[in-house]
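batch job 7 of whatever, protein = Aminopeptidase P family protein
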Amino acid sequence: MLQTFDETTDPSFGPRHVPLIRQAMQAQGLDGFLVPHEDEHQNEYLPAANDRLAWATGFTGSAGAAVIFADKAAVFVDGRYTLQVRDQVDHELFEILDLVEGGVPAYLEHAAKAGQTIGYDPRLHSPDALDRLRAAAAKAGATLKAVEANPLDQAWGAERPAQPKAKVVPQPLEFSGESSESKRQRIGAALTEAGADAAVLTAPASIAWLFNVRGGDVIRSPLPLAQAILNADGTARLFLDPDKVSENLLAWLGNGVRLESPEALAGALAELKDRQVLIDPAQSSAWYFSALEDAGAKVVRAADPCALPRACKNAVEIEGTRQAHIRDGAALTRFLHWAATEAQASLPDEVTVVETLEGFREATGALKDLSFDTIAGAASNGAIVHYRPTERLNKRTEAGSLLLVDSGAQYMDGTTDVTRTVAIGEPTAEMRQRFTLVLKGHLALARVRFPAGTTGSALDILARAALWQAGLDYDHGTGHGVGSYLGVHEGPQRIAKAPNSVALKPGMILSNEPGYYKAGEYGIRIENLQVVTEAEPIPGGERPMHGFETLTLAPIDRRLVDKSLMTAEEIAQLDAYHAKVLDTIGPKLDGEARAWLAEACAPI
């Protein structure tokens, strides 16, 4: 569970491993090969055995891709990882390109040559992604070819880590709020309404949610790697490695669930002949579609039927996450007290910062895991959006600088994710101005009211408006969905510039995390989690409006707030938030920490 600070890759990975991949490609008659970050379950965070992109390139971020040709190669990352990738990847071997602006399809259009055959592993790509890649290759006169044996896996060979086999355990009703049987009946009815007889589920989060189980196959997320077939009558077949079956799991699943080994999956898909089978073309890999079509099933392409119900938390899950945030807020506040007092004099390094915060969370006695490796960026490292401290990069905090700490925890009753930026010593006027602009956007997104049917992309501008007025912006999304003791990044809801067709619904939990990053100097981000609330009428209004309830409770550094840049409404909102923090978290503290919190939450 403890965070480590060792580097598992380095820039030599590419020069050492790409020649081996090219040899395996040549043996299969391939001119190129596509290497996505995602694994067979389309996971964001991966077990070591499935982290193919890292092994091929050295890049360890949570989003990316690579294309390897016989004579050239490229690696693709988004705006969060532009600095990290240059530190981890060999620049002479790999061209470094943007994953979002054109990405792999745009690269194939000009980098592929007429007559070339480019391989891909159908277990790693969704049909939606392959459609775009296939069209791009065709424009260059090249052809995509599915491979039976992944040449990267062949090159990795005996050095590849074993697949994880963490035990799968029940998630009690006191935390889930609804039985698996009820969920299966509910989703089964939705399948019937969609004209489907069954659904194939491959997303670990959906399987964990539907069967009320949790696992440990995926780093920092309590997820089991498994597959399932859900029938419209609510019965299901769950394909799970026998080594993962805990003692009471069979009794927990009940008679409506048939537990089978993964080796039986192909045969089970073949049994779906002539049946209408729903499967998500954005979540499940192309291999499943081919298997179903070869079996004679009638494929219904539609969104994972568990995704939206999973995102809309029930009352038990919402109350659980409130309690998790109170518990976590007390731990985080103890850490912020340490950062505002002892750390101001000792100027600790980033590793010490991470270990200190983790220690406060462990002291709760309820911590199951971190929800992701803590981002602790001192001074210039704070400008690296998804920076992770290592022994090599470890930097000491500096007087007159900022410390950005983005962290989270997994508790059985909820998942947390919070970012605080604190001043070390006396901040500059520019730091205070930029922090306040970020804060204004954060407050605007927290207080907004919006009608049913509004998407996150419609709200994103609220978090950026103050920055835009100053000619500033940030290159990441503003809000991601968060699970209930599941993944810290959960769809389908999000708040970002990119269009999103999913309306925000009551019970959805999202982050609110605008930021600003000055390369080489400092970074700023303020992040709370908030839950979409039921629509309520506004006096004099004509339509009921949804809103947000802020879940995260921890003080925001008032030393970084320039009150002159804030409106009276914003000042009142910040003061009200701090009053709630003091009222809720204060009784959980004592001594110096309690006294410090009272001062930190005083009206500005």
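notes: The domain at 169-310 is CATH 3.40.350.10 (Creatine Amidinohydrolase; Chain A, domain 1).
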